[in-house]
Amino acid sequence: MDANLRTTGYRFDPSKYSPPLGYTRLWVIVSGKPAQRYFDVKALHLPTFDGRYFHQAQVTRHELSPVENLRVCLGSLSLEPYSGEALRAFSFGGVLQIRLEEGDLICELTSTAPIFKLRSDPAIAGGLIAEELLDLLAEKQAKLAGHEDELYSRLARIDPYQAFLASMVSLRKRLEGFPANLRREKFHRVSAELQKAMQIVQQTDGWDGKSPGLDDLL
Known about the structure:
Layout: H1 3-8, E1 10-13, E2 23-30, E3 41-49, E4 54-60, E5 67-81, E6 87-101, E7 104-117, H2 127-143, H3 148-155, H4 160-176, H5 185-205, H6 214-217
């Protein structure tokens, strides 16, 4: 483990995109007791799928074996510190690799899609998109009352990058259907960030802007 991560307690690796769009990887150190780090993580909370059931998993120093991999679902995750406010992020799914090192759990989240910070730096696109996608997922869950596992079992079978493209297409459709008389400042901010994100992906990945939406994939 590098010294900087040991000091800070977490790290988002830089985006592969230019201008930046989210982050490529998330590292978190989970400690069994306060360690006087810049951000001292007590627990990592994230949505997981074990092949059959959806779980809101809690990763703590005391509950896991020395080496473990978790399948992460599309959705929000949070870093719970020993003191202060939690740090929240959003992923389109991926793999969380966990290992025990020098008494701490080293957690590495990798994904084929960008990882977004919620309430992120305005210079890095993605935070507003993630917040809108959480609202969109909540709407889909509400329609499947009592069957939330079915939604996540389907989401878990989609490659994170495909889920990322599908989410942007679905969000664009949702914004286009928003009544013109209700389009306030937040609407325009989200719309501008989504347009910027789609342009970045088109320029870097050669995407044509077309993809099945979430409803099509589900």
